[in-house]
Amino acid sequence: MVYPKLPTYKDILPSDFLDKLSYEKRKDIWIKNTTSNGNHVYVAENNEGKIVGFICGGKRETNQVKDSGDLTAIYILENSQRMGIGKKLIKELFFKFEELGFKTIFVEVLEDNKSRYFYEAFGAELLKTEKIKMAGAELNLLVYEWKDISPVLL
Question: Which GO terms describe its molecular function (predicted)?
Answer without folding.
Answer: acyltransferase activity, transferring groups other than amino-acyl groups
